[in-house]
Specification:
The chain is built from 14 helices and 12 strands. The protein is of the alpha/beta class. The strands form 2 sheets. Strands 5-4-6-7-1-8-12-11-9-10 form a 10-stranded mixed β-sheet, sandwiched between helices. The protein has a two-stranded antiparallel sheet with strand order 2-3.
C-alpha cells in the first residue's frame, strides 16, 4: 500500500483567504463571524454568518463580481461559475502554487479531481424564475452548468484541463470527507498518482437560511457567542461559505518532484447510522464504526491519537451524539486526548467542511500546535470528561483524527500523521 501525502492547500474562508491568514486565525482562535446584512430583518431569526471577506459575489451576474486583483480570471471562465465556483477556482490556484504543480502535472492522466458542493440555490432560483417569467429563450446557455451541484466539477475540470479521475460527491456535510477517502483509495491502489479535492459553498441567504426552518442555526446576535461547540448554551451552527482545496499525492510522486508534504493522510473509514434522515444516531453508532475503521486503516491505536478535530457543529443533539461515539471508541483514553471543533472559528461550511478541516489539521501538524476550543465558556456538564483546551496548545501532534457527519447518518473519519512520525 502506497503512502499518501498532503502537498498543497488552498483556502477562501471566513478566517482568511490564504494559508498564512488562516493559520494566524487558527492559532489566535480568531473567528470569522459577522452580523450578515441580509439577515438583519425582524422576520429572519438568524443574524450571524461566517462571511468571506474581499469578495463581493452577491449579484447573479458575474460581471458585477469583485474579488482580489491577484486572481485575473477571464470573462469566459467566470460566466459559467456560481459564487462558490469563483471561491473554488481561487483556492485551487493557491493549492497548485503551494504544491508547485506545473501544467504537465495537472494535465497528466494520473491527476484527478474530486469536488463537493450543494450547487448554487441562488443561481438556480434565479434561472428557473427567469425561465418561468420570460421563457426558455431568455435563459443563459450556461444556466445549468453554473447552478447545479456538479458545477465545481464542470468548471474546474475544463479550466485546469484535468484528464484523470473526476466526479462529485453528495453526502451533505460528509461530502468532502468521502471525496478525500476515495481519493486516498485511488492513490494507494495505484489508479492515480495525484488527486485534488475541492469543497466550496456560496454561503449566502439562499444557501444558509433554509437550515433555520430545521432550527439548526444559532439565533445568537453576538458573533462571539454564535458558534460554541460543547458549550452548555450552544444553540445551533453558524453557516459559512468559501472554498478549501487539498492536494494529495503518492509517496513516489512526492519523492520524484522533491515536494515537501504537510502531513500524511494515513487512512480513513466510513459508516452509516441507518437511523434518521437528518439527526445523528443518539448513541453515535455510525461515527464510532467509522472511527474504528479509520484507525484500522491507518494501523494506529487510540493510544497514538494526539488530537481529535471533532465534527461538532454546536448543535445540542449533534455534539452529544459525537461525544458518545468518542467514548465508545476511546474509553478511558478519551480524557487524555485534546478535542476541539474548528467550526467554532470558521462556522460550518457544509459540504466543504471536511476539506477545510483537513487543511486546518495539516497546518497544525506542520506547525506543531493544537487548536483550542474557540467560543467555549461553560462546558456542558455532560461533557465534563472531555479534554477541551481553552487556548491553542504549543504541543506538536503526531497523529490526528478528523471526524465528519452528514444528513442521513453518513459518517467519515480520517487519520492524519505528521511526516516521519
Amino acid at each position: 500500500m502506497r503512502k499518501v501525502f498532503i502537498t498543497g492547500l488552498g483556502f477562501i474562508s471566513s478566517i482568511g483567504n490564504d494559508q498564512a491568514a488562516v493559520e494566524a486565525s487558527l492559532r489566535a482562535l480568531r473567528h470569522g463571524f459577522e452580523l450578515y446584512p441580509p439577515f438583519q430583518k425582524p422576520e429572519v431569526p438568524v443574524k450571524v454568518m461566517g462571511t468571506v471577506k474581499e469578495f463581493d459575489v452577491a449579484s447573479v451576474d458575474s460581471e458585477d463580481w469583485t474579488y482580489p486583483a491577484r486572481y485575473a480570471l477571464r470573462r469566459e471562465l467566470l460566466r459559467s461559475m456560481a459564487p462558490h465556483g469563483l471561491y473554488a477556482h481561487c483556492a485551487m490556484l493557491q493549492a497548485i502554487e503551494d504544491a508547485r504543480l506545473g501544467e504537465a502535472d495537472l494535465q497528466s492522466e494520473l491527476t484527478g479531481l474530486y469536488c463537493a458542493s450543494a450547487g448554487s440555490p441562488m443561481m438556480l432560483t434565479h434561472y428557473v424564475q427567469r425561465m418561468r417569467d420570460l421563457g426558455v429563450s431568455r435563459c443563459s446557455p450556461v444556466s445549468v452548468v453554473s447552478s447545479i451541484s456538479g458545477t465545481l466539477n464542470f468548471n474546474l475540470v475544463a479550466a485546469f484541463k484535468i484528464r484523470g479521475h473526476s466526479c462529485g460527491f453528495s453526502s451533505a456535510c460528509a461530502s468532502t470527507g468521502h471525496a478525500l477517502g476515495f481519493a486516498y483509495d485511488d492513490i494507494v491502489t495505484g489508479r492515480q498518482d495525484r488527486m485534488i479535492v475541492v469543497g466550496a459553498e456560496d454561503g449566502n441567504t439562499e444557501a444558509i437560511l433554509p437550515f433555520a426552518t430545521m432550527r439548526a442555526l444559532s439565533a445568537q446576535k453576538d458573533p462571539a457567542l454564535a458558534s460554541r461547540p460543547f458549550d452548555a448554551e450552544r444553540d445551533g451552527f453558524v453557516g459559512a461559505g468559501g472554498a478549501a482545496v487539498v492536494v494529495l499525492e503518492s509517496e513516489e510522486s512526492v519523492a520524484r518532484r522533491g515536494a515537501t508534504p504537510y502531513a500524511e493522510l494515513a487512512g480513513w473509514g466510513q459508516a452509516s447510522d441507518g437511523y434518521n434522515v437528518a439527526i445523528s444516531h443518539p448513541e453515535g453508532v455510525g461515527l464510532a464504526t467509522a472511527m474504528r475503521r479509520a484507525l484500522r486503516s491507518a494501523g494506529v491505536s487510540t493510544a497514538q491519537i494526539d488530537y481529535i478535530n471533532a465534527h461538532a457543529t454546536s448543535t445540542t443533539i449533534g455534539d452529544a451524539s459525537e461525544v458518545k461515539a468518542l467514548r465508545t471508541v476511546f474509553g478511558a483514553e478519551l480524557g487524555r486526548v485534546p478535542v476541539s471543533s474548528t467550526k467554532a472559528l470558521t462556522g460550518h461550511g457544509l459540504s466543504m467542511a471536511t476539506a477545510l478541516e483537513t487543511g486546518l489539521c495539516a497546518l497544525a501538524l506542520r506547525g506543531g500546535f493544537i487548536p483550542g476550543c474557540g467560543g467555549l465558556q461553560n462546558v456542558d456538564p455532560k461533557f465534563a470528561d472531555l479534554n477541551l483546551p481553552r487556548q491553542t496548545l504549543p504541543s506538536a501532534p503526531r497523529v490526528v483524527l478528523n471526524n465528519a457527519s452528514g444528513f442521513g447518518g453518513a459518517n467519515v473519519s480520517l487519520v492524519l500523521r505528521a511526516v516521519g512520525a
